[in-house]
Amino acid sequence: MTTKQDTSADVAPYTEPSGFQEIHERLTDLGVTKVAVYAALGVFLVWSLFPVYWMVTATLKTRDTLLSFPPQWIPLDAQFGNYAQLFAQRPEFVTFITNSVIVTVVTTIIATTVGAMAAYAFVSFDYPYNLDFHLPFYILSTRFMPPIVTIIPLFVIFRGVGLVNTLRGLILVYTMFNIPFAVWMMKGFFEEVPESLVESAMIDGHTHLGAFFKIVLPLVKPGLIASAIFTTIITWNELLFAVILAQSAKAITVPVGLASFVTKFSVQWINMSVAATIALVPVLLFAFIARQQLVRGFSMGAVGK
Amino acid sequence: MATDTEQDVATPEIGQFQQQESTRETVLLWVDDNLKWLMTLPAILILFSLTFYPLIRALQFSTLTYLPTGTTFVGIENYVDLLSDGAFINSMIVTAKFVGIAVAAEFVLGFAIALVLNKKIKFRGLWQTLILIPMILSPTVIGLIWRLMYAPNGLLDYMAAPFTGGANVGWISETSIALYSVILTDIWQWTPLVVLVLFAGLQSVPDDISEAAIMDGASRRQRFLHITLPYLKSLIVLILIIRLVDALRVFAKVFILTRGGPSDATNVISMEMYRTAFRFNNFGEASAMAVTLLVLVLILAMNFVKIANVEFGS
């Protein structure tokens, strides 16, 4: 023990195991910590998922069983008619869904393409004044700006050029929103593509642009999918800009439609639950299909590699 | 057959075809020569026109009385007015409470779960995916989910009944409780992000260093303080900044749950700005609020990085 301590002076000196540690080790031997670990995760899982379960099952209840004492934990007499009822009472909800789908799909295509192109250029070209270093940081910094700061001028500008209450206006804003993430996400992927691949493709007669589309893009497909899924989720979910820039039915998106079910004082409980469930299904579906990229994307997006 | 037709068409126009080819080539060569600008231009243009330019306009609006009836230049009057605007000052305090409590709770809880997840457990991928669900949901949907949980006679009233004797708590209608209820929904949504990021960091701590430390007899606590924490340092700073900046702009949850009420108890700064601009049509004062918020975010983010660097000694 003493020799160990001597040879490793730069490491923290050895101390006697504390009482706590001893207890910990004895509990580990008994398998108690293992139980505690799974119990902690289990509690956190229930805490994270139960509210979602509660909302989804609310769509199958009646007004009386929705807020009953004691609560109805499992909807026994499932009211599937609630779904038909939403569209019968609020037929405009179909338009909201269509609007959201159009805005989300177009935004995703544009933002991913524009972001990927910029990311590739920053990775593979040299710019004067060190711009290949500064521009990505300028792009990233826009992500930290509170969106509400620009929303008043954007509203005034859009009103001036007739973009208020149009899907085009929303698409523009959401593209702006998503570019920083796409650029930073794709940068990491392009950095892993060897330069020699592009060079040999150009020797084979491809243009640089052609090599980008035919050789490089297929290699970074996981990155493209991840950026696309993120853009889709963020765009589908966004409320603030939609509330301000889309006030007439022809441009209202799902989140704004959802907000209309609640006022300060009253809530249309059943319709609200049904609509919210319809809004969250595509997100869950996407997340499930792409769970690998999702985990990678979230840690990468946050880490900003 | 197919070859015949192609030749028939191609032969008489061969000169023109070649010329077309060369214009096409010139274009492609020009594109390739300027590729580094062409590829970045769309992104820069969109970001410049939709963030930088509006920012300049926000600065300009903040010096005007921008009312539907007309605009006049008033200099810094809007900013001076903010200092005596009770609703604005209240919204700053509410926002500070919201950000402080939410981010602290998310960090502590998230770090704890990340440490648990880092143990040898089965189905780690599945756990990881499932606990991510809250953070991918729309804040609007989250607001609605919790509106249902907080409803009078709702689930949380039922669970609190042993303490309240069955009376409704008024989770989002009672002035003294509402803000904490809104904060809870934010903790619910964003703790998973802290888990995910710190867990990724924990995974990157090299095993051999930990093992060497164990050989040298370093205690659990020492290993945590001298190996794990320094490794996670930059990630901790990063996740705190991200959560800080994002929590400062919370809007949708408040909009759905309380609209800033009861009696402004949950009136965060975005909500106050929204009301000033789009309820009272006072774009000038709302822009002054926006600029103030932006400056605040910048100061916070910059100081945070500085403090973090000194504290951890990068």
Mean pLDDT of chain A, as a whole number?
Answer: 83
CATH superfamily of the largest domain in chain A: MetI-like
Q: How many separate domains of chain A?
A: 2
- SS-derived structural category of chain B: mainly alpha
Reading the helices and strands of chain A in chain order gives HHHHHHHHHHHHHHHH
Counted by DSSP, the helix tally of chain A is: 16
According to CATH, the fold-level topology of the largest domain in chain B is MetI-like fold
Structural class by SSE content of chain A: mainly alpha
Number of E-state strands of chain A: 0
Shape call of chain B: globular
Please summarize what this structure is.
The complex is a heterodimer of chains A (305) and B (314). Chain A is built from 16 helices and no strands. By secondary structure, chain A is mainly alpha-helical.
What do you see in this structure?
The complex is a heterodimer of chains A (305) and B (314). Chain A is mainly alpha-helical and 305 residues long. Chain A folds into 2 domains: 2-79, no CATH class; 86-303, MetI-like fold (Orthogonal Bundle), CATH 1.10.3720. Chain A contains 16 helices and no strands. In chain A, helix 10 crosses helix 11 (208-219) and helix 12 runs antiparallel to helix 15. Chain B has 314 residues and is mostly helical. Chain B has 2 domains: 14-61, no CATH class; 80-312, MetI-like fold, CATH 1.10.3720.10. Chain B has helices spanning 2-10, 14-33, 35-61, 77-83, 86-117, 124-131, 133-136, 139-150, 155-164, 175-203, 207-215, 220-248, 252-257, 269-278, 283-312, and strands at 64-67, 70-73. Chain B has a two-stranded antiparallel ribbon with strand order 1-2. In chain B, helix 5 packs parallel to helix 10 and helix 12 (220-248) runs antiparallel to helix 15. Chain B is globular and about 70 Å long. Mean pLDDT of chain B is 84; it is low at 1-12. At the A-B interface, helix 3, helix 6, helix 7, helix 8 and helix 9 of A face helix 2, helix 3, helix 5, helix 6 and helix 7 of B.
